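pasting for the record
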Amino acid sequence: MPHKLINLNPDLKQLFDEGYEIEIKNGYLLVHQIPYLDNQINIKRGTLVSTLNYSANDLKPPETHVIDFIGEFPCNKDGTRINGIEHVGGKDLGYGIKTNYGFSNKPKLGYRNYYEKIIQYIKIISAPAKSIDRSVSEKTHRFIEDIDQDSVFNYPDTCSSIAEINAITMKLSNQKIAIIGLGGTGSYILDLVSKTPVKEIHLFDGDIFLQHNAFRTPGAPSIEQLKEGMKKTDYLKNIYSKMHRKLISHSEYITESNILELKDMNFIFVSIDKSEIKNMLIDFFESNNIQFIDVGMGIRKDNESLTGILRITSSTINCRDHFRKRVSRANGNENLYQRNIQIADLNCLNAALAVIKWKKISGFYLDFKKENNTLFEIDSNLLINEDIDS
C-alpha cells in the first residue's frame, strides 16, 4: 500500500492516482522519473524533492515555493540551461537524499497544494524533452514501498527536513544511549534525547514515580497516574514511546549484577547522587572506553532566596584525567551536589547543557572550546568552562 500520508491527502493521492512515481521519505516528497534534456540534447530522468509541511498526517500548503532536483541541470531544446528556475546548488538532505540543484518558480499567490507545485515544475523541466519525443512521460504508475517503517520515530522528523539538517541529525542515529537516573535532570535528558534519531534509549532507575517527581519532570501527570505507583522508567517510557519507538525500560538500579548491560552503549548520561554507585560506574566506563556525561546540581538557601551551581562533566576517550577531581566520589552531605533541593527549571537547564555537550561530542554542534567541565552559577548567571581538551 502507498504511504498513509498519500491516502489521507487529496493532492498527494491525485499525484499517485495519475501515475506519478512518488515517494515519502523522512519528511520529503520525492517524485521520480521526471524527463528532461541535458546540454547534449539527450533525454534524461531526474527526481524532484520537496519538503513536506504536515502535522499528524494533515498536509498543509507548501511552506516554500522552491524545490530541489536530483539529476543534471535541465536544458532547452538548444542545449542551454532553463535559467529562469536556477536557484541554488546541491544539498545533502540526509538519509541518502543528495540533490544536485535547487529551483525557484513562484506564482503570485504561491502554491495552494503539492499537486500544483509538482505539476508546475514538471511542466517547466519536461517541456523541452516532450517537444522532441511526445511518447516521453513521467507517469510510470510504479509503486514505491513505504520505507519509513524502519524509522525510530512513529512519525517523520519534519523539523529536521524543513530546516534541511537531516544530514547533520544523522550523526546521532547509530548510537545506543543509556540514561542512569530518571529524576528531575534525567527525565529532561530523556525528553531531549527522545527527539533525536538515536538507535536505542535505555532507561535505568528502580524508583517509583511519586508526587514530588511530578513537579520536576516534563509533562503534567494526573492524580490517577500518580496513584498507579508506576516505576519511573515505565511511566516515562509510556509517554516518550509515543514519539520514539526504541525506548527500553530497565526498572532497576545499576548494581554489580547487571552493570554488563551497559557495555554495548555508545554514550551514557549519569544523573544520580549515590557516590558508591557512581564509583562503580566510573571505573566500569573507563575500563570499557565508554564515553559519558555526569550531571549534578547543588542548590542551597541564602537568606530568603535560593542559589547554587549546576555542573556538567564529560568523560571522553580523549579526555578522562580531569573527571575524578571534578566529580566528588565521597559519601555524605559534604558533597555539594547531593543536596536535595531540585527545581524544574534548573533540572531542565542542567539537562539541556548536558545534551548540548553530547551533541558537540557527536559532531552535531560545532565545538571550538572542547570543554569537559561546565559550571553554571545561578546568582551571577556565569557559565564557566574548564578542562579544555587539547
